[in-house]
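Predicting structure from sequence has reshaped protein science. With that in mind, we have picked out one protein's residues alongside their backbone shape tokens:
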Amino acid sequence: MEIRQLKAFLAIAEAKTFTAGARRVNVTQAAISMQIRQLEDEVGLPLFTRTPRRVILTEAGEYLLDRARKILREHDSAIAEIAEVAGAEHGRLRIGSASSMFATQQLPSIMQGLLETFANAELTVSSGTSQALVDKIMHGEIDIAFVSLPVENSSISTDLLFSDEIVAIGHPKHPSAKERFISAAALAGEKLILGERGGNTRRMIDDFFHAANVRPNIVMELSRQEAINQMVENNLGVGIAGAKTVFREIREGRLVSWMIEGAEIKWELGLARLRGGYYSPIAKEFVRLCKASFVDREKELKARK
């Protein structure tokens, strides 16, 4: 078995078609088909069942899938360890972030600090929902990611960085602006502006409404918390946010907030990486810088009060 064949097999298994799999590994469909034929000839069994619209893993394919992922992870770890021979200032770190606010406010200075130690490091950053980023870690596409906690995957290790209580936010001219609490039914009846599906916070909010047996009136689903806050500031609806992250807007009178009756929802941000995977020096330094950054952020938030 060759690494390129296993990468081709994994790409098709995840993309469900030969065409999409070929795009993932940047080869032609004819080339990826040949690689799979060679792999099937070697194992002596078909790995896929071809249907008009998609491919389905055979029993042999399902058995190979987990093994292929483990082999490719070990391959990437070996490459990373060998790369360290070039010197401590080198390294590669592929970062993912499900928090646009963090990526805007804190990540740039963290990366700058990282480059002070690893001057010739190869750093990349991508965004996505927490679930999408966890999937990328599992598939070896990124090394570490900022995600909402908890992560329900035993193969993923996480470090808690920041915790914030979830509150409802509204415009100061809202009829209930002077109230301290809002019920599930009242909140569900508002024009709700929520985060996109796929993140833990949105899932917990949906679960809360489901448990309260009310159907929320969702008018917008946005990927950035800043966009949600701005929409609420323009009196276009009621949103959900972390109490600490909107403290300044509330203090300045641009927003009001309500505690949500019966809801004990906390937004927790953490760093996720593959459990048992190669923990490179650059990744260790990145984690250290992140933890220090969030300690400073907590001090700053307390000083504002």
Q: What stands out?
A: Residues 84 and 165 are 41 Å apart (CA to CA). The chain has three domains: 3-83, 88-161+268-304, 164-266.
